[in-house]
Amino acid sequence: MSMQTSLSGRVAVVTGASAGIGEAVALDLASRGAGVVLNARRGDQIEALAAKIHDEFGPIDGEPRARCVAGDAADESTIEAMLDAAVEHFGAESDLIVANAGRGLDGSVMTSDTAQWESMLRVNILGVSRLIRAGGERMLALQKGREWLEHPADFVVLGSTVGRHISPFSSMYGCTKFAVNSLAEAARRELGPSGVRVSLIEPGIVKSEFQDSAGYDPEGFGKVMERVGPVIVPEDIARTIGFIVTQPAHVHVSDALIRPTRQDYP
Fold first, then answer.
1. pTM of the entire structure?
2. Residue 156's closest CA among 68, 49, 258?
């Protein structure tokens, strides 16, 4: 049972694929041979990404290598549409799901904008929970019908270093990632015995548009990145995920905390 460096024949679903880590993960998985279902709110951006994937990595059985499902990743209807798209476009249930969609929020429980709390809790916790539930049910059924040692199945969940080492300066965002950490580990214990690997990825400081959308102070956060840099880029996270999902089916990297070398905290 050697490592399967190729993902040929596998179908991936990637949420939050319009930019940053999600985009990099989709490109990496496609480069390894997977068919990819792309999800994000910004339909025009994932359509552009799908075209790039098709141009760079070619079709699968004459069909585009990527399929787009625009919409809110926390909506049950969008989740079902993503999972259905895998079957409709590639003729197989997804056996590789990356729960990447999420958002940040600057500030602590005392200082953050309370008007944004519910929105963040919804996408970061409820959205991931709904995807684990819907995707997990399908993966369990998939694995029951085949020899799992010959067919790896992966559910990759994006957490954060602040979901393990809380920062008082982003405690509201951090608490959602503490919840995601717990969800991922609980799902691993529940799904793992059936041959479904659930892996938690906890990035440190990553250079992307995440900081701007979270409302972080560009000058202050820029100084932090300068102090601990060079910081991680999305391709570093994608490469790590690619390593995890290409392990033999009996090998599971259940969690990976990834920091820039000079990041001391959190």
1. 0.94
2. 258
Closest CA to 12 of 67, 78, 57, 61: 67
**Two tokens at 94?**
């997804």
Q: For residue range 76-134, list pLDDT tens digits in order.
A: 999 999 999 999 999 999 999 999 999 999 999 999 999 999 999 999 999 999 999 99
Tokens of 253: 């990297």
Strand order across the beta sheet in which 153-158 lies: 66-70, 35-40, 11-14, 96-99, 153-158, 196-203, 255-258
| CB atoms inside a 10 Å sphere around CB 32 | 18
Q: Which amino acid is at 4?
A: Q
Domains of the chain, start order: 11-258 (3.40.50.720)
DSSP 124-169: IIIHHHHHHHHHHHHHHHHHHTS-GGGS-EEEEEE--GGGTS--GG
